[in-house]
Amino acid sequence: MDVQKRIEAMDPASIKRLKLVEFEGVPLPETTVEQWEAIWGLKARPDDLLICTYPKAGTTWMQEIVDMIHQGGDPQKCARAPIYERMPFIEMCPPKPIRAGFEEVEAMPSPRTLKTHLPIHLLPPSFWEQNCKIIYVARNIKDNAVSYFHFHQISKLMPEPGNWDEFLEKFVAGKTAWGSWFDHVQGWWKAKNCHPILYIFYEDLKKDPAGEIQKVAQFLGSELSGAVVGEIVQHTKFESMKANPMANYSTIPNFLLDQDISQFMRKGTVGDWKEQFTVAQSEQLDDLCVHLLADSGLTFHTQL
């Protein structure tokens, strides 16, 4: 049974919001922690590619870019299946009869492109042992927080977000799923000095998509013509992604992801945080970034 049929076979009455369990200092969905032994023991292969992000930092965007590069810029080949089927989410353990991400991964032929939100210290060790290539996408904290808040509102598996003020407080304290944004972006930033990790900024991808796509292609060992890069830019721009059922999660039923509340692909802009943050909240995050990112060498842009 393929992924889509499994989703359609679900009992809507069985869906409940997952509790978070603190694991190794990181809040994770309870079902992920229950299956941790299998996730940690996942056997990476040398030609695996891993796309890693903090949640809502441009994951789906990068997944579609990478698939377009792999398919030589042919959108028809990228339309073969929904994005979550093409690139399984390794630590996601949804309700039955959907298979856990690690089970989907094990059943896939090589070469595999996989997705994770895990912080650096929780990545299964076989990815390091096999020296797998990793693409990390980082997004500025303010837009990231707003996007994550809206996702919590539509996802029927994520914990209740509460109102914006309550959510932001939890987010800043690292009490949302996958933990602290600060720890996440810095952990992966430091790791790029020792491992084959391409660290991409969401804001750079918005500002110069063609240049950043070329950077990804080079990292993957692909030579792309200017025309193919142009195809990929067009196919993966926000308006195209939002209208693409193989990328916009519209194939997921409303009882799991209620897109009547808000779209999975909502705005995709830089600076949308200004619609949500109070002046005091914005200043608080500015101060935190100065303090917590001080010696990291990381710089984020909250507007273009």
Give a written overview of the molecule.
This protein has 304 residues and is an alpha/beta fold. The protein has one domain (3-293): 3-Layer(aba) Sandwich (Rossmann fold), CATH 3.40.50. 42% of the residues lie in helices and 9% in strands. The chain contains 16 helices and six strands. It has helices at 3-8, 30-34, 36-40, 59-70, 75-78, 83-86, 101-107, 126-129, 141-154, 164-172, 181-191, 202-207, 209-219, 226-236, 238-242, 279-292; strands at 20-23, 26-29, 49-53, 113-116, 133-138, 197-201. The strands form two sheets. The chain has a four-stranded parallel beta sheet, with helices on both faces. Strands 1-2 form a two-stranded antiparallel sheet. Helix 4 (59-70) runs antiparallel to helix 14 (226-236). The longest helix has 14 residues, at 141-154. The protein is globular and about 45 Å long. The relative contact order is 0.17.
